[in-house]
Hints:
Layout: H1 19-24, H2 30-42, H3 44-52, E1 63-68, E2 71-76, E3 79-80, H4 82-91, E4 99-104, E5 110-114, H5 115-131, E6 139-143, H6 148-160, E7 163-166, H7 173-183, E8 187-191, E9 193-196, E10 199-202, H8 204-212, E11 221-225, E12 239-241, H9 242-247, E13 258-259, E14 263-269, E15 277-282, H10 284-297, E16 305-308, H11 315-327, E17 331-335, H12 346-354, E18 358-361, H13 363-372, H14 375-378, E19 387-391, H15 397-407, E20 414-417, E21 451-454, E22 467-471, E23 481-482, H16 486-494, E24 501-509, E25 515-520, E26 524-527, E27 530-533, H17 534-542, E28 547-557, E29 561-570, H18 578-591, E30 600-603, H19 617-626, H20 639-651
Parallel strand pairs: 4-17, 6-7, 6-8, 8-11, 11-12, 16-17, 16-18, 18-19, 19-20, 29-30
Antiparallel strand pairs: 1-2, 3-13, 4-5, 9-10, 14-15, 15-23, 21-22, 22-24, 24-25, 26-27, 28-29
Helix pairs in contact: 2-3, 4-5, 4-6, 4-11, 5-6, 7-8, 10-11, 13-15
Bound molecules: adenosine-5'-monophosphate-propyl ester.
Amino acid sequence: MSKSSKVKPTPEVIHKPSKEFSAKARIPSMAAYKKLYKESIDKPEKFWAKEAKELTWQKPWSKVLDWKAPFAKWFDGGKLNVCENCVDRHAFGARKNKAAIIWEGEPGDRRVITYGQLHKEVCRFANVLEKNGIKKNDRVLIYMPMVPEAAIAMLACARIGAVHNVVFGGFASEAILDRLEDSGSVAVITADGGWRRGKVIPLKPAVDEALSRYTAAKIKRVIVLKRTGNDIKMVSGRDSWWHEEVTEVSNKHVAKPFDSEHPLFVLYTSGSTGKPKGILHTSGGYLTGTYATCKYIFDMRDEDVYWCTADVGWITGHSYIVYGPLANGATQVMYEGAPNEPDFGRFWKMIEEYGVTIFYTAPTAIRAFIKAGDHFPAGYDLSSLRLLGSVGEPINPEAWNWYHKHIGGGRCPIVDTWWQTETGAILISPIPGATPCKPGTATHPFFGIDAAILDDAGKECKPNEDGRLVIRKPWPSMTRTIYGDKARFKKTYFSDYPGLYTAGDGARRDKDGNFWIIGRLDDVLNVSGHRLGTAEIESALVAHPAVAEAAVVGRPDDMKGQAVAAFVTLKSGFQESEHLIIELRNHVGKLIGAIAKPDDIYCTPGLPKTRSGKIMRRLLKELVTKGEISGNITTLEDYNVITALQEKVKKK
Ligand code: PRX
């Protein structure tokens, strides 16, 4: 690290927020941002306590922060119910008949759920969970399509103090099993299927398959939502239907208070080694972080119609579909299916139809829209939009400019939000009425976030010098631990620079203090905004009977950001063939999920290794990125391996 980057970091185009936007914004100028930022860094506890006080606490906290690095307790002694804050708070007053969720299914079916109705549905489902013996601290695995019931199930868990463990519906049975085992979940909430590109995607068979091999705990109940009506097997005594369960219970339920540090959820994410880690988030701090970032970064108002296109299976769905917007009493759109069903006009049609004012999506989607053509957005009235957001990977300036012009009509600020599953909430982002934006930079840290870029020696980098992104002070929505593995938590995030949180991203700051995120420094890939560990894909490959050894690296891809390139050596008796390559891809899809299928698979007689036998992934990465290798290869055991691979990669 810490060498100057060759990429010119500061394109001179600067987009200032419009006067109209700034005039109505909570933070109306850069001077106002700087003032509040300084105060929030000088006295973070004061800043966060003020935000937390806007939530409903059943018992006030006695201490804002207890920090024994790397373990934080926020609002210790305080008690609250996260679900009450997201639902009950709005369900009885002026927002009772306000739409909480405007849901559209892919086939075009619609539901509008008001806060009053959401309250009843969540209470019912909380009663269902309790009736089935699910208690405080029990882990509940949720494997659902993008339907309101996914949010209802999460909120119901929060209401009774159960810890939800949402698994993205695109993951396969093996991934469900890993997450069941690691979390020791005692119940599963799922559906018969969901709609995607006009087809039913079955969900229940993957749950059945995982449960048939599950041993870590006894399953109390599997509750199944009927969404698509496809044929599924129901296991007698274990499985029950959602619609039957909810008719048997009352729609009233008293929300009990839980400790501020009570676990709210575990969400698994990929790391550079081993299996995915269960990122644990707790109640009071997480809710404060998601609430405050929604308020300031999305400038959320009662009259807004907000739409985040993520899936609830990812952290973006947790923080910016479920908890943040609902804690703010927002109206939001939720969509079940694909952006190109029936064509690439689907999102723009929905924006026109529902009058969406704030739209939050990922660069990978924007690049797909650019490719599909400007005529799709041009065919719809997008004048309701006032703010755009981006998340999941660096947004390349071309995508930023297209988004700004073709979706935002040149008038909407774009908030490029940097954060992670571990951070719980956005940490670096423009504040829309205040921050001048340069396409491609997430700009400045949020209030209370002490972000810095350090070199290997721990010294702060100079402007435009590459280094490691760290957060120097604790913040309320930070993950508290890796589920069941405090030592791994400490080692992964707090060992590069003792006491400081290392994000795993490379970054640099320009002379104006803007943060430019370069990408992951570890063996984690970002494929279409989805985080995948190379180690996971490698172990899926070597689980195939034909594969002796595998090495996986990322290569740049115009659409996906990064594509997955795999190098495998075959066991004796197996021959390279087109058929085998397809089989290996499908094998990875079956074990992890379609998103992890390698784009390229190279069969090779050997992998480049050091003399001590370590695979030199750096060389493979160079090979797929530049087609050749440079730099120091003196540690390489056998140079012929590289020459052979170079030929193969060139041919592709
Ligand atoms: O590399 C960064 C990238 O996504 C990683 C976090 O992935 P995940 O935990 O799945 O959360 C994604 C949604 C928050 C980060 O380490 N990343 C996320 N947002 C941005 C980003 N990279 C650049 N710019 C962003 N705005």
